[in-house]
User: Which sequence fits this backbone?
């Protein structure tokens, strides 16, 4: 049913974030709590992500961008890094058909030059197979860093012949890895750390932050609802002031 009050309708729509950014942290600690190798936590983390994508989509989120491997995660032991690379390949073959059928559009953001040909091909296949989907866009940040993103955007702009006095925020935004999405409204980080760890630096200029102690493999609908409920109470001003017509009744 359409809401007869346009202001209330605008408020209701604004209370669900269009774009959620997610740092899926805590897999290693979750595994350690179970006396299992870190890989066990990563493996569980993939299954949890597939369920989370659906849950966010059901709640009206249009874009979900997840941090799967940072530009700094190469510092981890070689065994963990190769385990993660293998896991992504397995995840694509295990879940691609299911996600494609559920209306998920998959995009990969990050520096692809450092990953194997096999993985690059798997990603291209996942992107092509889901390009027409419209229910939710899942962007997987892999070998991604916010600083890398700014640098690659500058390089792309220069390569496109943009002159120094033509460089502005809109121009760089066009070349950033998430140019197809609005800036994230809500940034969720699991695992208890309260930092960005070089995720979406440019895009998070006015994003609302939500940190939870919950370790990523334990993240489910209850945590999603808690984050969305907290977001609905945020007063976003973008540097301006809150228009009086949007203030809650009686305020
Ligand atoms: C996040 O979990 C997954 C990746 C960085 C790939 P961690 O592996 O960082 O888990 P913790 O933080 O050590 O518990
Ligand atoms: C951030 O988690 C990266 C991902 C979740 C992929 P990290 O575990 O790498 O972050 P730090 O090292 O604790 O900042
Ligand atoms: Mg971590």
Assistant:
């Amino acid at each position: 049913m359409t809401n007869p009050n346009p202001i209330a309708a605008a408020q209701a729509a604004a209370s669900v974030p269009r774009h959620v950014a997610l740092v899926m942290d805590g897999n290693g600690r979750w595994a350690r709590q179970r006396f299992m190798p870190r890989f066990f936590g990563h493996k569980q983390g993939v299954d949890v992500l597939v369920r989370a994508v659906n849950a966010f989509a059901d709640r009206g989120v249009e874009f979900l961008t997840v941090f799967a491997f940072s530009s700094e995660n190469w510092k981890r032991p070689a065994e963990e890094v190769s385990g993660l690379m293998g896991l992504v390949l397995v995840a694509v073959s295990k879940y691609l058909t299911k996600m494609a059928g559920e209306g998920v559009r998959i995009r990969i953001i990050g520096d692809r030059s450092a990953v194997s040909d096999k993985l690059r091909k798997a990603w291209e296949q996942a992107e092509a197979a889901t390009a027409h989907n419209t229910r939710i866009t899942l962007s997987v940040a892999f070998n991604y860093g916010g600083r890398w993103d700014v640098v690659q955007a500058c390089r792309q702009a220069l390569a496109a012949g943009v002159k120094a006095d033509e460089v502005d925020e809109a121009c760089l935004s066009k070349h950033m890895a998430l140019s197809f999405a609005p800036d994230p409204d809500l940034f969720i980080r699991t695992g208890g750390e309260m930092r960005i760890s070089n995720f979406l630096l440019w895009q998070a200029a006015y994003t609302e932050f939500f940190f939870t102690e919950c370790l990523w493999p334990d993240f489910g609908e209850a945590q999603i609802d808690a984050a969305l409920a907290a977001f609905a109470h945020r007063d976003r001003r973008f540097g301006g002031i809150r228009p009086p017509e949007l203030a809650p009744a009686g305020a």
Q: What stands out?
A: The pocket of magnesium ion (ligand 3) is lined by residues 25, 191 (CB under 6 Å).
